[in-house]
Structure formats: C-alpha cells, structure tokens
Amino acid sequence: MVAEQIAAAPAEVLAGAAFSKQSVIFDDLYSSNTIVNYKRARVRAHISPYLKPNSHILELNSGTGEDALYFASQGHFVHATDISEGMQQVLKGKVANARMGNAVTNEICSFTNLKQLQNRGPYYAIFSNFGGLNCTNELHKVLSELPNLLKPSGTATLVIIPPFCLWETLLIFKGKFKTATRRFFSKNGRIAHVEGQYFKCWYYSPGYVKKHCPPDMQIINIEGLCTIVPPSYIEGFAEKHPAKFAWLKGWEGRLKHTWPWRNMGDYFVVTLRKV
User: Fold this and answer.
1) 192 - beta bridge partners?
2) What does the alpha-carbon distance between residue 86 and residue 246 come to, in Å, rounded to a whole number?
3) Which end of the chain is more exposed for a tag (fewer CB within 10 A), N or C?
4) What's the 3-state SS for 141-172?
5) Would you call 187 helix, strand, or coil by DSSP?
6) Who wins on pLDDT, 6 or 130?
C-alpha cells in the first residue's frame, strides 16, 4: 500500500499533500522550539548580507510564511511559492493579519516546475529553507532554472539536508538504529511519513551542488548548520542544558565554514551568485 501511494505521484506532490495536512498545526509544533529558532536565525544571518535594500526575493517551499514575513519586515518584497495548498492558505492568513499584502505575494508552484512560474521576476535573491528541496530527486533541474529567474549578480541561498549528520549517526549509541542510519545507502531515496502521508526524500552533498551548478552561477558560500549544535528533533536539549547549548553554538559559529564541519550537519547552507 505504501509503495503504491509513493508511486502514484512525484515526490514533491506527495510531500505537498503531507504538509497540507500538517499546515494547521505546523507553527504550533515548531515555533517554540529553541533550536528551530536558532536555525532560522542562522539562515537569516547567512542570507541578509547578500540582500540590497528593498530586494525582491523568490522563496521556494515557503511553508507557513515565517521567513517571508521576516524578510518583508526588513523592507524586502517576497514572492512566496509552495506546492502545498494548505501551507499557502496559512501563509495568506498570516500575511493578511500582519497587513503585509503589499510586501508578500504568493503562488502555488512546484520548484521542479519553475518554468511555469507566473511571477518570474527577475529577482535579486532566491531562497529555500529547511530541506524542502530534498523532496525531489531532480535537484539538478531546480538548480538549472535558477539563473533564468535572477538578475545579474543575484543570489540563491538553499538550505539542504546532506547524506551524513554526525549527531544523527551518534544516536546509534542510544539504540536508535533506524534514525541513526536513515541517511545511509539512500541513493534511491528514503521514505518519509508525515500526517499519514508517505513520500520519498533524497539527500544531497555540497559536492552535488558544485557538480550541477549552472555555468553562469558560482558558489560563494557554504556553511554547516547543526553540525556541533544538536538537531532540533533532539527535544529539550537547549532547555535542559542552556550552558552546553551556548557553548556548542559558539564552537559551531567558529567552525561552520571549515571542513569537515560544513559537510556533516543536519543541513548545509549554500549560496550561489549569478555571474
């Protein structure tokens, strides 16, 4: 039954259906998580130096609009796209409540179908957070379309889940074998499960992005995220161990750009610039 469900549609479509089901509780699940908030702050600190005042940003897999609203509050204009109708509905409600309809627009569109995007910009920046792009086995297709949507010198910042995470692997010593090894031998994808919906996800290394980087773009920054700081699914760590959490954040800040740390986190953040 699971195999039939997964074979019925592209992975990003099934993922969109899963997150539509979760959209009404998504913010309640994650907005109070200290490490999730740390991750958001890190990603925003990464992308902000590449933005000019009043930048027009295209966001892929925008979810409930937390990042879109943040960048709009900083004076930017965001076109927030997602394949999940449920997530788009929540986003529209939040934008209306914040009275930011002049700064945040939205469109239902898959990142694998960017040729069909109605609002094509061009944009000064493209942004995708928290592994949304892992919900396809066609990341190369997404990368190839980025320069067509960017202004000269525009940037694309992508937050991607890699095939190895040190913290996750160490869970094997706590008896969590399935979680500790779920990224291993995942060339053909791994099955994810959200709100009763099954879909596949794939893991990508910085090397993959380098290999498939379009010829008119260049990688200008890569950093690891949750390499030394534990992933957010290790619940309560920051609250139970605030001093350790602060110490780990400090070390991650020092080592985030260095090898091997930039390659072995729960995510890596990569920015490409159109040349």
Assistant:
1) 199
2) 36
3) N
4) HHHHHHHHHEEEEEEEEEEECCCCCHHHHHHH
5) coil
6) 130
Phi, psi for 82 (deg, rounded to 5): -165, 155
Residue range 68-107, pLDDT digits in tens: 999 999 999 999 999 999 999 999 999 999 999 999 999 9
Q: How far is CA 89 from CA 20, 119, 126, 267, in A?
A: 9, 18, 21, 27
- Per-residue pLDDT reduced to its tens digit, 166-193: 999 999 999 999 999 999 988 899 999 8
Computed over every residue of the chain, the mean pLDDT equals 95
Q: Determine the Cα–Cα distance for residues 34 and 216; give it in Å rounded to an integer.
A: 38
| CA separation for the pair 169, 172 (Å, rounded) | 6
Residue environment code for 143-167, b if the CB has 16+ CB neighbours within 10 A, otherwise e: bbbbbebbeeebbbbbbbbbbebbb
Pull the structure tokens for residue 14: 């099934």
Q: Are 159 and 135 in contact (CB under 8 A)?
A: no
Any residues with CB less than 8 A from the CB of 257 and at least 6 apart, and which?
221, 222, 223
- Output the pTM of the full model: 0.95
Q: Which residues contact 142 (CB under 8 A, 6 or more apart)?
A: 60, 111, 112, 114, 133, 136
Average pLDDT estimate for 241-263:
97
Q: Which residues have CB under 8 Å from 215's CB, separation 6+?
A: none
